[in-house]
Amino acid sequence: MRFTKAFIPTLKESPADAEVVSHRLMIRAGMIRKLASGIYDLLPLGLKAIRRVETIVREEMDRADAQEVLLPVVLPAGLWKESGRWELYGKELLRLKDRGDREFCLGPTHEEAITDMVRREVRSYRDLPLNLYQIQIKFRDEMRPRFGLMRAREFIMKDAYSFHATDECAEREYENMRQTYTRIFHRCGLEFTCVEAETGTIGGSFSHEFMVLADTGESSIVVCQACGYSANTERAEIAPPRTPPAPAEKGEPPGEVHTPGKKGVDEVAAFLGVSPEQLIKTLIFTTEQGPVAACVRGTEEVNPEKLKRAAGVETVELADDRTIEEATGGAAGFSGPVGLLKVPVIADYSVMDMKDAVTGANKRDYHLVGVTPGVDFNPTYMDIRVAKGGDPCPRCSTAMILKRGIEVGHIFKLGVKYSESMGALFIDESGRERPIIMGCYGIGIGRTVAASIEQNHDEAGIIWPAPLAPYHVHLLPVNMNDEKTRKKADSLYETLRMEGYSVLYDDRDIGAGIKFKDADLLGMPLRLTVSGRTLKEDSVEIRKRRSGSQELVHLDEVVAFLERFLRGVEERPSMNP
To answer: How many helices (H) and strands (E) does the chain have?
Structure first.
């Protein structure tokens, strides 16, 4: 593509509303433009990068014996009501009505639609297993769309769904998809890891996320370098103490202290002159079975997903002031576990060995001091806090390290969540009717492009991994007014295109400095510079964008150089494939 014919509206300055590197650089490089909040136009360069990812995904999914389909974007409400998610999904589901006043939604995901397709066609175990995938636009009405393609409302996603007669078959396909995703992200040239994750609104029995590692990542993960365990901090387990603390001796009962208006951990600690670690933070949650109290050390945070599992409930939400008053007898902000009789108390392991702690007194403007767990209250101890760096690994107890990552893929074992509720049944070998067992596997195509930029950039611009680059080569003649330079550049452009290389040919009649800056901003793997100096040696200067190294290569050897380079491009290994 000649630059003079290309639609690449680059910008010198970053837009004011761009908060992360990928958002800034994609706009500056003329890859995307904002149409509305969380909705973007994909310009030619942006779409080319998207298509690179799609090609890799298609090749690997086909290799894994998955078959491509295309489902509607607009989905009837009836399917979502069958699964129970019409009410459960919340405001992210964009609902609409047609002229017949029938309810629909824009698909944020397609479990219901694909389950409906399969239940209409599959009758017997002989029709199974199946793995069907699509690459398609989704819409989720995010409350705070931000970060460009990283958290947009409209986005391109690859979603796949597998259908099985047995758990063993479903788990084999889950592993097949885990390996397939590993190949996909290897081929994309990304540094990534696979971590245990929560299932969220998709549901299912277990799941894993594929995270591109980047210092600017929006997600936190913990990794054990001793045994390889890794999980996002929402899911990560924390080992209980190897040796439970010795039973505390009964001492003086806790004493009430007047703490007027002091509710937060830091302000209570400062007021009493103690460390925040000396406080037991007590939060009251509502569940479908009634309120529950969760206790963690003052410096920790309650993990709602862990609390759900610990309490054996489906939903947990922070209680409102009225519920707190009814459950504790005191005002919100002053809750504590001592004397709490109306609700079950679940305490994190971090509370187990505390002594002379500070808690709320279940009385407005009062706290208790001198509280000892196991003496003054007897909770159920469970792992209910958000993991962080330094916590003990649940597998080997080694201290875990904290990393940042960007979720680009997520795989789930759904089980019978959708097939059971929607009547997707099959006849097994013994003639019994049973629900089909399902799996679900997603990749954010646009997020993968954005995550690649978050991981691969410098102050000058993007540094594309070769497999995702919109063009293999950025051909740059220094002076288009010099006839010899122009003719050699034209000839080289045609030669490279004939050899099958994608080339961005900067044939603009502008200063070389501007061309070089744009080349660094756009970030193609190789820059080929043609100038009077290089032509004296019948050569071009080839510069590698990632390393910055450059060398003169004879014109007759350029094609061979490109072949070697692209064949030998290093695809950085996964931390945890």
So the answer is: 15, 31
